[in-house]
Specification:
By secondary structure, this protein is α/β, with parallel strands linked by helices. 46% of the residues lie in helices and 14% in strands.
Length: 478
């Protein structure tokens, strides 16, 4: 069997028009797959320069295959089972800015470059006021992009036609606007000129986006079989569901350079992405995030196993129907249809979606994916949503780092891991709950309100002493 590379799998050469921050499974199975489709249909003619946004990542593995990898889509489409295997060929160059900072900034001089795409997780678009040394690779994603745009501004002497279409995919509200705001703040901290800041805001065009596709990632259970089917050794296979949706805020500059809605895919330029975002983030991502600690501590490893489990499945459905859907201002029949479709996607028989892959950055995800529902529910009903509180208690216990005799491989920001470590230096359940609920610097609000302390402390006690599965049955009234 041949190795997958451009010698064994020849491809054409296209101009590099896209600078992409992030090499993870989602971007490769969603954005790069879409770009591959657009190229094949003659809508675009563009390749990607890939920037690794953190000091560690998969850049080396991807470059060893010349950027080629297989996307495997599997699921139900119009009632029919669908399976596809496509070799994606849009990744052309690979940049580790931590070791190749000069090469990274050299791309700022490219006249062919038109688009910036990113997915650096929910925590990626954040202001780091200490990120002020641009003589070396900046620490934060906004810092890296600001340094890049400043180099571009200087090289082209402030030419207003050399701005870029900036398309973030991070799952936060108004991601384009927030990225623009953070970079403006950072530019001011740097003492950058008013002329550059004006160019930053007027020559470059930022759009808000919403992305939706479940991407479990590398198919460990049948990777060898897929390689046999394709005839190539491929260490970067990525599996995703058939369903996909990309909603972008209408922005003429972005639409002209990135006409992603012209390829017959489920890509929409909308006047307002808010309804799409609320529906998707609250129901799909919110259910995912709430499910993880409850299911994983119950001894379950995958999403499909979770939603088909009698008790975890009931918990997730009650959460969606009783606490999430009432907070979204859309017709009930539309919400029912979407929630039902989400549950079908969760039960996709082709996809093994590991709960631990969703658990990455769980602290930030709880804040961004579940607290908006928590707040909207309290505003509407005057009380706290009990399923979200139970999930919160399960999250607290999850970060104790134990599932029975098994050590959980916790992955989160270092400051959050340290916080949870400090939480579990306490031995009293009430004190544990109080410290977790009162962390306003993490949750951006104090959750120690009304009877939350007693409720969450009781849930934590039940989970620790009886086990998650027994505590969940008790919670559900079984």
């Amino acid at each position: 069997m041949k190795d997958l590379n451009r010698t064994n799998y020849p491809t054409g050469t296209r101009p590099i028009k896209v600078l992409q921050f992030g090499e993870g499974n989602f971007l490769r199975a969603f954005v790069d797959w879409i770009l591959w489709n657009l190229n094949n249909k003659g809508v675009m003619n563009a390749d990607v320069a890939l920037v690794q946004p953190t000091p560690t990542g998969r850049l080396k593995e991807l470059s060893e295959q010349d950027g080629l990898y297989t996307v495997c889509l599997e699921g139900i489409d119009n009632g029919q089972k669908v399976q596809s295997r496509d070799v994606i060929d849009v990744l052309r160059d690979f940049i580790d800015p931590y070791t190749q900072y000069d090469k990274y900034l050299e791309y700022a001089k490219s006249s062919e470059l038109e688009i910036v795409i990113s997915n650096t997780t929910e925590a990626g678009i954040a202001l780091d006021t200490t990120d002020t040394d641009f003589t070396v690779c900046p620490k934060s994603f906004p810092g890296k992009l600001l340094a890049f745009l400043k180099a571009r501004y200087d090289h082209f002497a402030g030419d207003p036609t050399k701005g870029l279409a900036i398309v973030p995919c991070e799952l936060i509200d108004h991601n384009g606007e927030e990225l623009k705001r953070v970079m403006n703040e950072l530019a001011k901290i740097h003492g950058m000129s008013g002329e550059f800041i004006d160019w930053l805001n007027t020559a470059n065009h930022y759009t808000n986006t919403l992305v939706d596709r479940i991407v479990p990632g590398y198919p460990r259970d049948n990777a060898a079989q897929i390689c046999e089917e394709t005839g190539y050794n491929d260490n970067s296979i990525v599996k995703g569901e058939v369903f996909h949706l990309w909603v972008l805020q209408k922005e003429p500059f972005v639409q002209e350079r990135f006409p992603a809605d012209k390829g017959g895919l489920n890509v929409i330029f909308a006047d307002d992405i808010t309804p799409y975002k609320q529906r998707k983030v609250k129901i799909l991502n919110g259910s995912h995030t709430a499910m993880v600690p409850v299911a994983y501590l119950s001894g379950i490893d995958t999403v499909r196993e979770a939603v088909t489990d009698e008790y975890v499945g009931r918990f997730v459905r009650e959460l969606a129907n009783e606490e999430i859907k009432p907070t979204i201002d859309l017709p009930s029949d539309e919400m029912d249809a979407f929630a039902s479709a989400v549950m079908e996607r969760f039960m996709n028989p082709f996809i093994r979606h590991e709960l631990m892959s969703i658990a990455l950055n769980s602290t930030t995800k709880f804040r961004t994916r579940l607290l908006p529902t928590y707040n909207d529910y309290r505003a509407k009903f005057g009380k706290s949503p009990k399923h979200i509180l139970f999930s919160f208690a399960s999250l607290v216990v999850f970060f104790r780092g134990k599932r029975g005799d098994e050590t959980i491989d916790l992955k989160d920001d270092a400051e959050y891991l340290e916080f949870w470590k400090q939480v579990w230096t306490l031995s009293d359940y009430t004190e544990i709950a109080k410290k977790a609920l009162s962390a306003a610097d993490i949750w951006q609000q104090d959750l120690n309100e009304d009877d939350n302390l007693n409720v969450v402390a009781g849930y934590i006690k039940s989970i620790v002493e009886k086990g998650e599965a027994a505590a969940l049955k008790e919670f559900l009234g079984e």
